[in-house]
Specification:
Layout (H helix, E strand, L loop, with lengths): L2 E3 L2 H13 L4 E6 L5 H13 L2 E6 L19 H11 L3 E3 L3 H4 L20 H4 L3 H16 L3 E5 L3 H13 L5 E5 L21 H5 L1 H14 L4 H14 L3 E8 L15 E8 L2 E8 L1
Parallel strand pairs: 1-4, 2-3, 2-5, 3-4, 5-6
Antiparallel strand pairs: 7-8, 8-9
The structure holds pantoate.
């Protein structure tokens, strides 16, 4: 049975006990409203650890002033039973006050330069500072040996990897594959904001990513592929933030240069901002 812990001292005592027994600790940080994508991360962490902790914390410092912090879905009872079913041992449920004891304004912040400033970072200023600030706190609270993050948030994973390498966190980062609905829409807590009319249109993001991959494979110039993708989404009714093809480290490749690529999209459908990506 999963145990829910709300006090840091109790969490530390539980983890200390496990470590005394020589057990490896896995960690899956979340903001709750969990779905199959999150549960697959718990199962991934389980493969590399003897015990798994997951946190549910809607982190105020990673939301911009006009974003959905207050309306972000909070579904803790369903999350507890889902985590239990996925094999999670402990749910860590901190409060905003315990996460930011000096208040959000006076909180020490973690900033990872470079990779934080492009794409999502450019469209959501300060977002990755909030993510790194909370993830570094969570790592210090849970003291995991491994931690799993989803590839759906491709740039977040890159930022976290850089933070862990730069600040020498003794945590191995695992990357979980994107889990999709049957029509290809990447699972996300924000999908539930989509109206019944918008929901089928949301699958256009995946079709556009596939078209980008095919365009590059056919040798078309990157700028042309990116512009065509933007037009495809525009025509389907999206307001596009970006449609880009990058190297895996998110730097810009030259046309014709061999090597792995990732296509990334961020676009708004009505009030819902969707992000997705495809590695090839
Ligand atoms: O990916 C998320 O849900 C959040 O950004 C994370 C990593 C839990 C930090 O709040």
């Amino acid at each position: 049975m999963i145990e829910t812990i709300t006090e840091l001292d109790a969490l530390r005592a539980r983890v200390r006990g496990w470590k005394r027994e020589g057990l490896r600790v896995g960690f899956v940080p979340t903001m709750g409203n969990l779905h199959a994508g999150h549960y697959s991360l718990v199962m991934l962490a389980r493969q590399y650890a003897d015990r798994v902790v997951s946190s549910v914390f809607v982190n105020p410092t990673q939301f911009g002033p006009n974003e959905d912090y207050t309306r972000y879905p909070r579904t803790v009872d369903a999350d507890v039973s889902g985590l239990d079913g996925a094999g999670c041992d402990v749910l860590w449920l901190p409060t905003v006050e315990s996460m930011y004891p000096f208040g959000v304004e006076l909180a020490a912040k973690v900033h990872v330069p470079g990779v934080s400033s492009v794409l999502e970072g450019a469209h959501r200023p300060g977002h990755f500072d909030g993510v790194c600030t909370v993830v570094s706190r969570l790592f210090n609270q849970v003291l995991p040996d491994v931690a799993a993050f989803g590839k759906k948030d491709y740039q977040q994973l890159a930022v976290i990897r850089q933070m862990v390498a730069d600040l020498a966190f003794p945590v191995e980062i695992l990357a979980g594959s994107i889990v999709r609905e049957t029509d290809g829409l990447a699972m996300s807590s924000r999908n539930q904001y989509l109206s019944a009319e918008e929901r089928p249109v949301a699958a256009e993001i995946r079709r556009t990513l596939l078209a980008m991959r095919d365009g590059i494979a056919a040798g078309r110039p990157r700028a042309e592929v990116e512009a065509a993708a933007s037009r495809q989404l525009d025509a389907a009714g999206y307001a596009v933030d970006y449609t880009v093809v990058r190297r895996p480290d998110l730097s810009e490749p030259a046309d014709g240069e061999p090597g792995a690529r990732v296509a990334l999209i961020a676009a708004r459908l009505g009030r819902t901002r969707l992000i997705d990506n495809l590695e090839f």
